[in-house]
Amino acid sequence: MPSYTAPTKDMQFVLHDLLKISQSDIPGYQDLDADFTSAVLEEAGKITSEVVAPLNMVGDTEGCVLENGVVRTPTGFQEAFDQVRDGGWTGLDMPEEYGGQGLPYVMGTAMGEMFSSANQAFTMYQGLTHGAASAILTHGTDAQKTTYLPKMVSCEWTGTMNLTEPHCGTDLGLMRTKAVPQDDGSYKISGQKIFISAGEHEMASNIIHLVLAKIPGGPDGIKGVSLFIVPKFIVTEDGTPGARNGVTCGKIEEKMGIHGNSTCVMNYDEATGYLLGEEHKGMRAMFTMMNEARIGVGMQGLAQAEVAYQNALDYAKDRLQGRDVTGVKNPDGPADPLIVHPDIRRSLMDQKSFIEGARAFMLWGAQMIDRSHRMGDKDADGLISLLTPVVKGFLTDEGYQATVQAQQVYGGHGYIEETGMSQFTRDARIAMIYEGANGVQALDLVGRKLAQDGGKHVMAFFDLVKNFIKDNGDNEALKNGFLEPLKQASKDLQAAGMFFMQNGMKNPNAALSGSYDFMHLFGHVCLGLMWAQMAKAAQEALDAGTSDTAFYETKLATGRYYMARRLPATGMHLARINSGADPVMALSADQF
Ligand SMILES: Cc1cc2nc3c(=O)[nH]c(=O)nc-3n(C[C@H](O)[C@H](O)[C@H](O)COP(=O)(O)OP(=O)(O)OC[C@H]3O[C@@H](n4cnc5c(N)ncnc54)[C@H](O)[C@@H]3O)c2cc1C
Fold first, then answer.
1. Which of 41, 293, 534, 578 has minimal CB crowding within 10 Å?
2. What is the tens place of the pLDDT at every residue in 180-194?
3. What value does the CA radius of gyration of the chain take, rounded to a whole number of Å?
4. Smallest CA separation from ligand 1 atom 6, residue
């Protein structure tokens, strides 16, 4: 059975050496000294590796079962869910006013990575609840917040998000679910939603569905969509679950991965719903949830890569095959371990350098979210809004690839279910699809986010890179393999942006044919920037005489690998973007 150990040391490095969070001006960060964050991360590491991770394979093999309208989750899920709930983990970064612990989002993000690595299917029950609670927190009335938030923060009640219908996933303007206004101010919701994660189960005493629906007579298309709170059990005056609402689970899907999470067809039959936010402004309200969810899904890519890598690394050190071409390393054994071979090293370095760069990017992004939420910093908000599709699309694509590489280290044994490596790739695959398929993330990035606020945020990103290179031009450690590759990659990104500006208006297909490459180009530059910054931090620790030289030297070498071997991908992406629409659109539909 695969194992999982929380990467607390690496998280501490990012939080303190790189981001220096306890010196930040963001309210709440001053309390986050290294001892405190270490204590939180160690405890989270314990519950994830000892309680949650051992259920990962159980969830995969047993899956969820629908019996007489009731969904049974895999053996042990209920007990573990109770334990996570009792430990207060689900409300770590939610407001104290509603029973949370009030810690910044950056801490919730670090903890979230651990839970996702340990068991993605299990973690989605609490993850979706967090997203739904955030939407109520931002858009709910005082009464709605009082009614739902304390129970959702503690996960006594869980939450869902209901967008998708059989005939519409990306194009939600086609939605058919109806919300008919009632005299008492509530609505009757009717329609069918599909693929609803955690839509039905028995681990919570109520499920609060957030449902998108159209009020008859409203504007056509996406502008006519509103958001509703639809509880499984209608909440009584005293705040407890009362009568069963008109919402039922019709079916659960058989699927490729995340078997421990129930993916439900939800039928709404004149169910009572309550408007959340304003009429016809449902997409805006849902976006609160979706942006958070997209970042959370990006993290799933990183998280599955991390756990798969950990196991591949152990295997590479253990499995004996062939001999080191430069000289025998294990003379007492019949062969040397896999890790001596350069091609296995390449694979492990690809994985490791992606994972550590991605972790820094995630936590740096989480810090931007804290800056936006806790300080009202509009620039930070704009920057993270620009980068959200990059976090989602790039980290899930690359995270999936990393799980495939980890599986490959196992050879044929990686394909056999017993080792658990196949589950990591199967579970990671969905992250490229839900919360907006990655192609649509790329579309959002190029079609919407680049030009947002007159292109101000992308210019701010370029400045960030440019200033870092300028300010550190004399840094000897960075001159050795960091600054030049970063400069080149950043030039590629700017050249791609320029191509879109010059060609996108004349021929939108020219921009959209290159959007996927652009998302990856951008992702590489983000990780390149993170690696350059981490290298600087690592060198500072070495110069200050750290006793842990091995850790910091490893950081520098891993960073140099990313800059030398992975970052040059920007050149390929730029060449593809510059080729424009013609090669992509050359065939008519009939010619395929
Ligand atoms: C396991 C699982 C769990 C899920 N959980 C939830 C959930 O909890 N709640 C929920 O509401 N939904 C959920 N979904 C649904 C998921 O979000 C959608 O499947 C996803 O958004 C894609 O929608 P679709 O399947 O209808 O694909 P389509 O919209 O039909 O898209 C098909 C393909 O075409 C591409 N495409 C579509 N439009 C364009 C365009 N304009 N330009 C370029 N490319 C385009 C897409 O990128 C995609 O690759 C879940 C799905 C699964 C499989």
1. 578
2. 999 999 999 999 999
3. 24
4. 196
Active-site choice (279, 356, 435, 484):
435
Give me the residue label for tokens 């681990």. 203
Distance of alpha carbon 479 from alpha carbon 213, whole angstroms: 55
Residues 6+ apart with CB under 8 A from 449: 385, 386, 388, 389, 457, 458
Closest by Cα among 77, 65, 310, 275 to 187 = 275
Q: Which residues contact 433 (CB under 8 A, 6 or more apart)?
A: none
State how far the Cα of 304 lies from the Cα of 68, in Å rounded to an integer.
34
Burial-class residue 112 by CB neighbours within 10 Å (0-12, 13-18, 19+): buried
Q: Are 118 and 48 in contact (CB under 8 A)?
A: yes
Joined tokens for residue 326: 């430069």
- Compute CA 391 distance to the chain's CA centroid, rounded to the nearest angstrom: 7
Name the residue with higher pLDDT: 69 or 463. 463
User: Is the Cβ atom of 125 under 6 angstroms away from ligand 1?
Assistant: no
Is residue 435 flagged as an active site residue?
yes
E strand or H helix that includes residue 257: none
Task: Provide φ and ψ at 200, rounded to 5°.
Answer: -145, 135
Band (pLDDT 50/70/90 cuts) for residue 520 is very high
Give the closest residue to 432 by CA, choosing from 460, 408, 396, 476.
Answer: 396
Angle formed at CA 529 by CA 526 and CA 533, multiple of 5 degrees: 140
Name the token pair of 523.
Answer: 């992702």
423 in contact with ligand 1, CB cutoff 6 A? no
- Helix, strand, or coil (residue 273): strand
Per-residue pLDDT reduced to its tens digit, 210-248: 999 999 999 999 999 999 999 999 999 999 999 999 999
Q: CA distances (Å), 118 to each of 43, 45, 46, 55, in order? A: 14, 9, 11, 8
Q: Closest ligand 1 atom, CA of 439?
A: 47
Inter-residue contact 359 to 113 (CB < 8 Å): yes
What is the token pair recorded at 482? 């960091």
The reply to whether the predicted model has a pTM over 0.90 is yes
Output the CA 557–ligand 1 centroid distance in Å. Answer: 39
Q: Dihedral of CA 88/90/95/98: which sign? A: negative
Closest Cα partner for 523 from 383, 384, 358, 406? Answer: 358
Ligand 1 and 461: CB distance under 6 A: no
Nearest CA to ligand 1 atom 30: 169
Ligand 1 within 6 A of CB of 516? no
Query: Is residue 471 a contact partner of residue 483, using CB atoms and an 8 Å limit?
Result: no
Q: How far apart are CA 319 and CA 326, in angstroms?
A: 19
C-beta of residue 290 within 8 angstroms of C-beta of residue 385: no
Token pair, residue 470, equals 């300028």
Distance CA 191, CA 27 (A): 44
